[in-house]
Structures are given as structure tokens and as C-alpha cells.
Automatic annotation (TrEMBL):
This is Glutamine amidotransferase. Pfam families: DJ-1_PfpI. Its EC number is 3.2.-.-. Keywords: Glutamine amidotransferase, Glycosidase, Hydrolase, Protease, Transferase. SUPFAM superfamilies: Class I glutamine amidotransferase-like (SSF52317). One of its GO terms (molecular function) is hydrolase activity, acting on glycosyl bonds. One of its GO terms (biological process) is proteolysis. InterPro entries: C56_PfpI-like, Class_I_gatase-like, DJ-1/PfpI. Residues 8-180 form the DJ-1/PfpI domain. It comes from Cellulomonas hominis.
């Protein structure tokens, strides 16, 4: 039996610069386990992905906009990386509010690569051990987190599970941790 049947997972992105494998690989992992992935972004239309932050990737349709969703609509939240994606997301108050709502509701939140920038801006990393792309280590420490260089870190904060990984090479471990957390 598929472990995520009946579960819905929000994938939160900006409109551009999303690291393609960090969106598509966890998306497929959720779908393969019977879950329903939903692409959430600030604007309707499509979002554009990249590979290695430079090479153009595909365009993906937005399922729902930030103003159309709440944490109550989903079982978990995934934040893909991509430098431009993450830098844009962390400045969006709606994205910050959604992350806070997931943590406040005790639901899993997963962020990979530069995705933890949004966790910092949402104010949910203080006292939590996390990983990320190495260039975010100082940012996470300055926000009160303990940064470690590991493939995946699963931590608890406020009743919520935070799952973080460093980069696309960590996707197998990241996806497994996401599926485990959503499956409960």
C-alpha cells in the first residue's frame, strides 16, 4: 500500500530560479507513495526551474497561490532550493507566514539547499540543529540554529518536524525523510 495515500504536500516556490531536481525529485517521491503534491507560489501561472542555478530547466504550472492556501489544507510543506528561488521566497511575507503556520500546527516542513533561508525569515530555527548548502551556515548560526554538515537532518521544533539537506546529491536521503515524516 502507498504510504501517503490521502496526504497532500505543498511545494512552496517563487516564480523563478527553482533548482529543478529539488522540486521534481521530492514531488515524484510524494506521488510514488500515493500522496498529492501541490505547487504553491505567490503568483498564478507557471514557475521556471533551473539546473545548477544557471542552466534553464522546465516550467511548471502553479496549482494554488499563497493567498489561496493555509497550513490546514496540507499535511506537510517542502521548500526546494535554487539561490534565486530561495532569496525571493524569504522576502515574501506570505511565504514566511505559511512556514510559521505549518510549524505552529506541528506539521512537517522540509527545506533543501538554500531553502532554509525561508525558515530563518520565518523565525523557526532558533535552537534547532539543521543543515543546508554550506554558504548558509553562518546565516543559520546567526539565527540561533546549530549548523551541521550532514546529508539530512531531522529535527523537532514546536511539535513540528524540520527536515533539511545540503544539495541535490542528498535527494535520496531527503526524499526518504520527507516520506517518513508525512507518513507519520
Amino acid at each position: 500500500m502507498a504510504r501517503l495515500t490521502g496526504r497532500t504536500v505543498a511545494f512552496l516556490t517563487s516564480d523563478k530560479g527553482i533548482e529543478e531536481p529539488e522540486l521534481t525529485t521530492p514531488w515524484q517521491a510524494v506521488a510514488d507513495e500515493g500522496g498529492t503534491p501541490v505547487l504553491v507560489s505567490a503568483q498564478p501561472g507557471t514557475v521556471s526551474a533551473v539546473n545548477n542555478d544557471l542552466d534553464p530547466g522546465g516550467d511548471y504550472p502553479v496549482d494554488r497561490t499563497l493567498d489561496q492556501v493555509s497550513a490546514d489544507d496540507f499535511d506537510a510543506l517542502v521548500i526546494p532550493g535554487g539561490t534565486v528561488n530561495a532569496d525571493t521566497l524569504r522576502t515574501q511575507e506570505g511565504a514566511q507566514a505559511l512556514v510559521k503556520a505549518f510549524v505552529g500546527a506541528g506539521k512537517p516542513v522540509a527545506a533543501i539547499c538554500h531553502g532554509p533561508w525561508t525558515l530563518i525569515e520565518a523565525g523557526v530555527v532558533d535552537g534547532v540543529t539543521l543543515t543546508s548548502y554550506p554558504s548558509l551556515a553562518t546565516d543559520l548560526r546567526n539565527a540561533g540554529a546549530a549548523w551541521v554538515d550532514r546529508e539530512v537532518v531531522v529535527a523537532q521544533t514546536g511539535g513540528s518536524t524540520l527536515i533539511t539537506s545540503r544539495d541535490p546529491d542528498d535527494l535520496p536521503a531527503f526524499c526518504a525523510a520527507v516520506v517518513d515524516a508525512v507518513a507519520g
